[in-house]
Design goal:
Helices cover about 30% and strands about 15% of the residues. The protein is α/β, with parallel strands linked by helices and about 250 residues long. The protein has an 8-stranded mixed β-sheet. Residues about 240-245 have low confidence and may be disordered.
Length: about 250
Amino acid sequence: MTTRSGWLRSRGSTGAVRLVCFPHAGGTAGFYLSWARGLASGIEVLAVQYPGREDRITEAGQEDARTTAAAVADALAGLAERPTILFGHSLGALIAYETARTLGGHAPAHLVVSGRRAPADEVGGDLHRQDDDALVDELDRLGGVGTELLRDPAVRPVFLPSIRADFRVAETYRHRHGPPLTCPVTAVIGTEDTEVDAVQAGRWAETTRGPFTLHTLPGGHFYLLPRQAAVHDLLRRLSPAGALSS
């Protein structure tokens, strides 16, 4: 894993297209870095590292989606210019969207949002205020990876503060109206996802003046774990001028 900035991690060589991946609540940059092997050699995979995890474990967790988005946009502005796809899952979809808005004149070539309702649909909730058991139970219910480790009370003080901060960001987010994006937007959901359905995901169309497409894949909220190859195929097909050819 290579550190590209305080916020970005990379693996693999640079390529004609840059794919920037935003983790879910509790997720890490490491969740995406293995994607460099599954995609074509013409893509550079960058993964956002939120504070409070992995090599940023000593830092306080996220403040809010827009603060994180501004920091990521600033980090991207310092890199060589090339077509950029933003991909975010769950909370990551929200932060990817806010990053696309923040980039302004350096708009991404495509925004891909996964497992998340449209920004104007408030999720709400107070899970970030509940006790540790409730938080871990929710992670289990969603079907993420590594939650068994959080059953150990000894490790909870290390990992749960940043996860709780992520849930606070997701639950307290309120959409601010502004000019729509101009880039294409693609939404992807699992057919059995209890967090978002096709109607809710379809409202991502309202976020852009560009084309919108909705894709469904078999599975629940973390459909992208067993369907990783299908997600990679979709990303190759969405890339500018087929630059992610196999």
